[in-house]
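Request: When convenient, would you put together a sequence paired with its structure tokens?
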Amino acid sequence: MARKRAARSEVPAVKLFVLDTNVLMHDPTSVYRFEEHDVFLPIMTLEELDNNKKGMSEIARNARQITRTLDEIVSSTAEGIELGIPLAGPSRGLASGRLFVQTEAIAGELPAGLPTAKADNQILAVVIHLQQRHPGRPVILVSKDINMRIKARALGLEAQDYFNDKVLEDTDLLYTGMRELPVDFWEAHGPEMESWKKDGHTLYRLKGPLCSQLLVNEFVFQEGSHPLYAIVREVVGKSALLETLTDYTHPKNNVWGITSRNREQNFALNLLMNPEVDFVTLLGQAGTGKTLLTLAAGLTQVLESKLYSEIIMTRVTVPVGEDIGFLPGTEEEKMGPWMGALEDNLDVLNKTDDEAGDWGRAATRDLIRSRIKIKSLNFMRGRTFLNKFLIIDEAQNLTPKQMKTLITRAGPGTKVVCLGNIAQIDTPYLTEGSSGLTYVVDRFKGWEHSGHITLQRGERSRLADRAAEVL
């Protein structure tokens, strides 16, 4: 009996999570993400949701969605709300805890300096009250607001960020798309090697301990007197199939007059020029050549090989400084100021043909412009792109949900390329770990029709490289 009692006392208490409004508006399904633990919603949270539900923004849409979710949960029980509503039914088994909604007026005991009329402070008062009512139970405030969490900790309360949507805690662990082979790789994997030639590429079938760690479409390389640059085509148990790459550093393999200047750019062009790869993600700081390489590959496959009918380019319209306000004109003209990067890169690509002359270059520019369409993200719902080369620029500012909305637009024969730098996120509530770009890189790795490369070296200018390094 004593052993049974001791075992029962070691069972951890079910936690009670108090949700701030910004968590619900950030992820409308957040009430289902706390597994066996209970969730508590202060009445002020519902009041703030009501204030934010009007409009067409992502926040307003999320506020309306969570309100509908809460209505569905409350309607699912015949018992009183004050006893807690079981979440197992409405969440379809995703959560097994209960949802509590504040049903009584709480006279909060807050320090004299904190104004009681402020919504955040009223939520803090609720957390203090719950902590006093349930002394043996962990009561935790969950908020995306850093200042709210600091205030809570200053009052002796436990507070956490909402972690469920974070793909990675540390972005240094993010998949880079490439791997350097160890010095003894061929000694360990070479004895039973088979090799043959196909379409100008050499293929190696290897067996060994490292093979099981490789991912399909991951690049492997080995520098030295006999350098190797290859891509993993197949992984079966402890066996892997490697294929050598097309060398895009050589002028004969130029893409719209552009050759790769480093190893990672060569890897990127091998993905961009491969029609079997439908989804490509390129990460890298400013000046690594993400947009230039993608446009060069897109123009070659649209105008020369005619693999795609046109290039569609879109990006998130998040200003870095103060917004300049209303922009006149059509959808394409309104997107013009946001597409400076496109114009800069087209200038570079247009100068690659030295023999064309001014008239020839002007004609080429008009032809290029007729095949590039600039679209706003706001009008993407419900569309389907057939045989298009879709470029999503500045993708680090997209949420995972927005990223899903965009990528699911792809119809038959469409290639989607996402470009971004996760160190330059301009959207509030998004971090390097929860960005939609980090999300898709992690979720798509190892799929045979997708590829990813993190570009390392800047190739813009020595000034830009130095600025990126020291500023």
